[in-house]
Amino acid sequence: MSVVISGALTDGAGIPMSGYHIILKSRVNTPEVVMHTVADVMTGNDGEYCFHARTGKYGVYLKPGWHNEYNVGDIAVYEDSKPGTLNDFLIAPDEGDLKPDVVKRFEEMVVQAQQSAGAAAGNAQQTAQDVAAAATARDDAQRFAENARQDATVTAEDRKATAEDVTSTGANAAAAGQSAQDAAGYARAAEQAKNDIDAAL
């Protein structure tokens, strides 16, 4: 399939560029065109040109008469391309021109997705750490409460034992006092008995 490219080649002042060779050098292999093949079309007296370009990608060169050719850009001809001038095809954006922006946006989306995933993972990890810390604090509080209860029980038992010791000590002291009194009475009775015996003799 081919697309008609036609128009008039003029310079910046609008002067027709007659006798110029428009050279198309194939950049890629296609079903219709082989890479590196060359098509050459010459402009008329008024700079006019018309040719059928096969689908493919081409480097466009101009060659004035016997002078050296020079590159003026690249064109891409697709099956659905519309007929137009050479300038239309030269200034039309190619898929290669669009690809960097698309790739850039895609890479930015990938980076954003990675950052979002990293933030979500960090939040999940922080939440797990907070839950673990809360569970540890709860266990510590329960352990401290149990220790306090045990300490209170031991203190109460110690106080009870101390009170019992005091009571026992008081009772022992009273018994000791009574024993001392009894011993003194026994001593006096023995002394009196001795005196009675001496008097009888």
TrEMBL record:
Region described as Disordered: 143-192
Chain segments annotated as coiled-coil in the UniProt record: none
Pfam family, one: phage_tail_N
Residue spans of biased composition, Low complexity class: 170-187
Domain of life: Bacteria
Domain Lambda-like tail fibre protein N-terminal stretches: 1-132
Protein name: Phage tail protein
Species whose genome carries this gene: Shigella dysenteriae
Lineage summary: Bacteria, Pseudomonadati, Pseudomonadota, Gammaproteobacteria, Enterobacterales
